[in-house]
Structures are given as C-alpha cells and as structure tokens.
Amino acid sequence: MGCGSCGTGKPNGCKSNGGCSTGGCNRLNVHDWLMNLPLNDVDGGCKIVEISFCNGSRKDFYRNATLQHFEKGELVTLEGVSGFDVGEVSLTGELVRIQMKKKGVDEFNPDIKKIIRRSTDKDIEMFRQNKAREREGLMKSRDIARELNLQMKLTELEIQADGKKATFFYTADDRVDFRELIKRYAGEFRVKVEMRQIGIRQEAGKVGGIGSCGRELCCSTWLTDFKSVTTTAARYQNLSINQTKLSGQCGRLKCCLNFELDTYLDALQQFPDNADTLDTTKGPANLVKKDIFKSLMWYVLPDSNKQYPLTITRVKEIKRLNYRGEKVDELQPVDLTAGKLAEADHGFVDVVGQISLKTLEKDSRRRRDQQEQDRRNAGGNDRQRPPQDRQQQDRPPQQGAGGGNNNQQRNNQGQQGQRPPQQQRPPQQQRPSQDRPPQQRPPQQQRPPQDRPPQQQGGGNNPNQQRNQAQQGQRPPQQQRPPQQQRPPQQRPPQQDRPSLQKPPGDKPPADKP
Q1: What is the per-residue pLDDT across 131-187, written as a single tens digit (0 to 9) for each?
Q2: Stretch (H or E) spanning 79
Q3: Integer Cα distance of 108 and 106 in angstroms
Q4: Which tens digit of pLDDT belongs to each residue from 266-312?
Q5: Whole-number Å distance between alpha carbons of 95 and 46
Q6: Helix (H) or strand (E) holding 307
Q7: For the residues of 188-241, what is the DSSP string, one character each?
C-alpha cells in the first residue's frame, strides 16, 4: 500500500497535495483543493490538523497550539498516553472543519490533544524501532489468544512511538473475556494494553486489496461509514441472488450494491403497482422481470416459455380492462427486432473457376522444360567426345588413386550448377575360368580381402587443375588419356594356402553352438 518511489525529499509522497491517484501514499486521502488559495482572515482559520497513523489505517484530530505551518506528509510529535507519539500530517486548513463536521467532532472540545513539535531525528529513530516490533508482536499475541482458546481474530497491532502503549485491533462475533488475556499481554510486551473491537468491514479496510471490479477496495480508499446491505438491493436491480458474486472480500454483501440503489428506486416509480398478473383469454400472464432502461415489462403465458415484452402504457391499459372484468385476447408485445438490421442471406455461391492455377502450371512447365534441356545437353556433349574419351567415360569407377579424380570432377560440376552426364555401364567381360574344384563356404565366414597391386595412372595434377578452373567459373578442357595398357594377369595364391576354406563336397558346415 506504500508509495515509496513517487517522490523524493521532504515531505515524502507524490507531492500532489493529497490527490495521489493510486491511493498508496496514504489511505482515505482527501484532496486539499483550497491549499493554494489565499486566506483573508488568518486569525479565524482552522487550528486543527488531521493526523494519520499506519498509512491512513487510523486518523485523528490534533490541535495546532503553536500555530506552526505544517506541510502534508510531515512527521510531527504528538501527545500520547503517558508519553508521546509520532504521526503524519494528512490534511490542514478549512477542509479539516468539513471532516470534523462529517465525523461529529467539536472543534472547541478541550479534550483534543495537541501537537508538540516537528519530529526530531531521535523521535523518528525511536518510532521506527517500535514499528519494527509490531509484526513479531502480532504473531505472539495470536499464539497467546489461541492458547487461551478465545474466539477472536487479531487484525492489527499498533505500538506507540515511545513504546509505552500497545493497541490491539480484533474482530469477534460474541463477547470475549479479556481479563486473563490482558495480563498475559502486559507481562509479555511490558506495555499498557488497550483492546479495540472493529467490524468485519473495517478489518477489510485495514488489510486492503483489489476488488472484483479491478480497483482498490472502497473501504480502504475513501469509504468511512458502512451501511447495512441486504439482498433486497440486489432484487431491485434485477441481479441474480448469488452469494459468491454478491459478496466482497470481507464475506459480507458488497457495499457498492447501495451506490445505485436510489437511481433504481426512482426509475421503478414509473412502473405500475400490482401488475404481477394480467388476465387474458389464454390464461393469466405472470410478470418475469422489469427492464428500467427500456421501460419494458416481460410476461409469460401459461404452458409456454416464450416471453412477451410489453410497454408500461400497454400494461396500464390491460390492467384497466381487467378492473372492468374484461379479458384481452392478445398482449400486443413490442417487436424488438424491428430496429435491428436484418442480416443478408448470401445463400449458395458457386466459386468454381474463380481461382486461377495458371501460375502454378507455368512453373511446372518451366521446370519440366529445363530438365529436358539439361538432358539434351548432356547427350550432345557425350556424342562430341572422341571414342577414346567415351571408352574412358564408360568404364566403371575404379578404387585407388585414380578414383579421386572422378569424384572431384563430379563435385566441381555440382558446384558450377551443371548436371553431370549420365554414364553407361559397359558390359561385363567374362574372365577366363580356371579349373578348380567347387568350394562351399559357410555363410558366417567372410572371404578375406585379396591384395591387388595398385594401378598406375598418370595425371596427378589433374584434380588441382580442375579445382582451380572450377573456382574461376571455367569448364576444364577435356584431356585425352593415353591408350590403356593391358594389365598383367593377376596371380592368385594357391589353394593350399587356405586349407580352412576347403571342405569336402558332401559335408555340411557344423552348426553353431549356443
């Protein structure tokens, strides 16, 4: 509830002369709109100052005997019970007289306490030390009341600035015996104890909070006098009797139900009395509700759930006919849909053919033409090559030192955005069969790799040269490779070197052991 960041210096607070929009600087604020106006009669001015305690939780009036000028928000030292107290100035000037008249306090009452001086640093230091004890003292006091099994709820503890008096605010439904409780409190806190009972609505004002309307509670900002609220106020306003929605944070009916009650009562005076039932030929029509904003009365016929809105003039006319013993055939309800704009019925609309897909068709045709053009270019390049190059191109890729050149060439062509030509696999040549006995190998064993001599190929600098040309955006020239030399026949190791692979043709491989 404190407004600690809206102002600096002295006096503290937002410096809006009591008009803080949030109400956080001081609860139950009053805007001093006469502060900047000059006073003609200085001697006849009000000598009473309004002082607030605990951020506006409690306010009282004190006499300014020394006629000092106090600003709103200043801390002053006051007369207390067997000592002194410190409070904050909340209101000065002529508006104090209006507040005193509102609360029924006499300005010339000799029992009004006086303001001693402006608070010194020593007074403020002692005041803050005793304020720091309030939270811990409230917890201890609740434990003591629970031990004594007293049906009461302690709400707030206020300790005087000099630490000689403590006031306990509590709520209780029945009368409570405090004789033993006061003895325990006096022995525990070593202060003079005062017990003050408050209502459940005052408790909600001290605690504070946000209401269902989204604003701060009225009882903690401006509402001081609490009137009784009944469910009759909700019935006059055509509100559903729902305790959850009609109750506030204090558990009682919301005080705002009385705010607009007078306006509803004035509007209901135009409606006729004793019009709860109307006699018709179809049966008695019963009153359901009254709409004071449209000046309509809603009725329901028996054996029907339809509601008929009638004007006040029509209800008075039907009531006059009923006094004569006549019954009306029709109620003649008001047509509420006449003033509304009729919604246009669009019906069924055929939208086939309104959406064009030519753009997608053009993209698909362009993509298909581009693929055909790339395929033709790849076929033309293959026919322009000499027969030796085509033989080299038709050869399957070989593993070894020369295999990296083909892979590098394909990567360079991919980087240039060209599609590599499709290579035709040459027919496989049948190797001369060697006379050797048939061998049966188990499926679990793999044939060991055979050592083959590396193939010697020239042009070791071709990959680097092709890479440089690809980076420059040029297509590398096609080089003619020398005719391929016949490879010497590969010599395989004799069959005796692999005795483990030779099995008699009739034997089966041994089964695997589990």
Answers
A1: 999 999 999 999 999 999 999 999 999 999 999 999 999 999 888 888 899 999 999
A2: strand 75-80
A3: 6
A4: 999 989 988 899 999 988 999 988 888 888 999 999 888 889 999 99
A5: 9
A6: strand 307-311
A7: HH-SEEEEEE--HHHHHHHH--B-TTSSB-GGGTT--------HHHHHHTT---
Longest dimension (CA), the chain: 141
How far, in Å, CA of 117 to CA of 163, rounded? 19
67 CB-near residues (< 8 Å, 6+ apart)? 47
The two beta strands, 165-171 and 192-197, are: parallel
**Secondary structure element (H or E) that encloses residue 287, with its range:** strand 283-291
pTM across the whole model: 0.54
The answer to whether the beta carbons of residues 147 and 181 sit under 8 Å apart is no
Q: Which residue did the predictor score with more confidence, 43 or 244?
A: 244
C-alpha distances (whole Å) from 15 to each of 25, 34, 118, 247 are 10, 15, 19, 36
CB-side neighbour CA atoms (13 Å) of 11: 21
| Euclidean distance between CA atoms 303 and 260, whole angstroms | 36
Identity of residue 411: N
Residue 11 to residue 24: CA distance in whole angstroms = 15
Write the single-letter amino acid at 272.
P
Nearest alpha carbon to residue 97 among 107, 87, 89: 107
Instruction: Give the phi and the psi of residue 87 in degrees, each rounded to 5.
Output: -135, 175
3-state secondary structure of 117: strand
